[in-house]
Amino acid sequence: MSRRPLFPRPTSRPLGAASARDTSSSPGPSASRRPRPAGPLPLALLAAAVLTGLTGCSSAGASAGGSVEVVVGYQSKTINTVTAGTLLRARGYFEQQLAAEGKKNGRTYKVSWQDYDSGAPITAQMLADKTDIGSMGDYPLLINGSRAQEAGGAGTRMISVTGYNELGALNSVVVPNGSPAHTLADLKGKKVSTSVGSAADGTLVQALRKAGVQDTEISKQNQQPAIGASALKAGGVDALAQFVAWPGQVVFGGDARLLYDGAALARPTLHGVVVRQKYATEHPEVIEAFLRAQADATRYLNEQPLAASQEVAAATGLAPEVVHLYNGPNGIATFGLPLRPELLAALREDVPFLKSVGVLKALDVDAFVDPSYLAKAALPEIAPARITGTDAVCGQPVTDPAKAGEIWFDGEDATRPAATPACLLKAVKAAAGKKVRAAYVPDATTGTRWFADKDHWAQDGADLLPFTTEDGLKAYLAAHPGAKQIGYEQALAAS
After folding, report:
1. Quick one: where's region Disordered (predicted)?
2. How far apart are CA 169 and CA 77, in angstroms?
């Protein structure tokens, strides 16, 4: 089978199998499927290796002598897939589930983890029968299903969701702090870095069209996220349109400001898990074990969000404050496995757009999405992480997620809840001299959680209101003549 890349290749780095940064496995991967790990196993995988033994295995995930291999492709820095990737791997949940399965059926299971920067190479490996389970964003998922259906055979199936945002805030556009751009329309004729074919690219194209700018009126640079972030810092591009967690990372690092919040499109965006159907049919117990492990990781993330954020940060090198922005309680990403009707409806609505830009020919979404694996796994419902407790400064319970914020002070092992943006500002002011690692507040219109000191603020009577973008602030001011724009320091003083 051809192993051509699914999208145009970035000039900075090819999107082929060789782009896997970090390949390691439980013992004995088949040389015909993948290279051996370059370094020592993480402790969780080493423990799993002891449990599962040192038995060899045949290629393409087939079992031989009671040995079954499974290859998982994931994106460590795409942190709303962590429950099927980074966090799942770090905590060893999949290996634990497979070890328990092996005790029942006498088989030995070995897991090989392959880390990529985007979903395209995972799909290429799946089409070449070299990766069995993968996690990626909605557009790459749809292209995965389309290419697999086009190739014929058993194809691939989407079996669960990882993280999602009902308004699309997982994708956004950032510009350097000194950029003259204040709206998307200001990017006309400018260089914009994105990963062509990704959900972030789709958000960029649709948002530009909404702003009256055609995709051809910008100079699009097809780059991997890390390359684009570096280019933005170096002045090589005028804007970066990317998916979680890259916009938050460059903004938190002081290198950029948010120009466009994907929530303005009001179109759900999601990430999910896809499997090779042939492998899943041959080894349904592996897929069910994966879903149980994903549920374990999802439960841990939602019940221990700060600890989970710190673990993901340690594994990826991302700032923990940025990981927590997205994955924390009331975060930009909500984590849950169910294939919710509104998310599937969004996938169906995305197909015509992907066809219009030439990255997808056709896709039978109903044939691609398969809820039967989740049904067989019979997993209990997992409540998403929410900010709760009592606001100590304002002396009131935290109950409204549209207003609730969270403060992470340096040297503290837990974050503090804030009932409203004004209460959060009061808490920051009251703790004068204490370093704030991060203070998170929801946008007054979209609800997008962002850094309080990076927001645009308005004062409307007694209300202090944060907005993620200048566009959002101006729209509010236009609709509320009595309101006025203020800076963050002014907002602190007024709280």
Report:
1. 1-39
2. 17
Rounded CA separation 263/258 (Å): 12
Distance separating alpha carbons of residues 140 and 14, to the nearest angstrom = 16
**Is residue 490 helix, strand or coil?**
helix
Q: Is the pLDDT of residue 53 over 50?
A: no
Q: How many domains does the chain have?
A: 3
The b/e string for 229-248 (b: 16+ C-beta within 10 A; e otherwise) is bbbbbeeebbbbbbbbbbbb
Omega of the bond prior to 404 within 30 degrees of 0, cis? no
The parent domain of residue 240 ranges over 171-265
Quick one: what percent of the chain has pLDDT higher than 90?
Answer: 83
Question: Do 110 and 190 belong to one domain?
Answer: no
Work out whether the CA dihedral 93, 94, 95, 96 comes out positive or negative. Answer: positive
CA–CA separation, 293 and 350 (whole Å): 29
Clarify whether residues 80 and 42 are in a common domain. yes
pLDDT at site 59: 39
Nearest-10 crossing angle of helices 320-327, 305-316: 130
| Angstrom distance (rounded) from CA 173 to CA 163 | 19
Task: Please give the order of strands across the beta sheet that includes 239-243.
Answer: 219-222, 191-194, 239-243, 171-175, 257-261
pTM: 0.87
| Helix 43-52 × helix 93-105 angle, to 10° | 10
Among the three residues 248, 265, 282, which one is the final residue of a domain in this structure? 265
156: number of Cβ within 10 Å: 27
pLDDT in tens, 449-488: 999 999 999 999 999 999 999 999 999 999 999 999 999 9
Q: What share of the chain is helix, strand, coil (3-state, %, to 5)?
A: 40, 20, 40
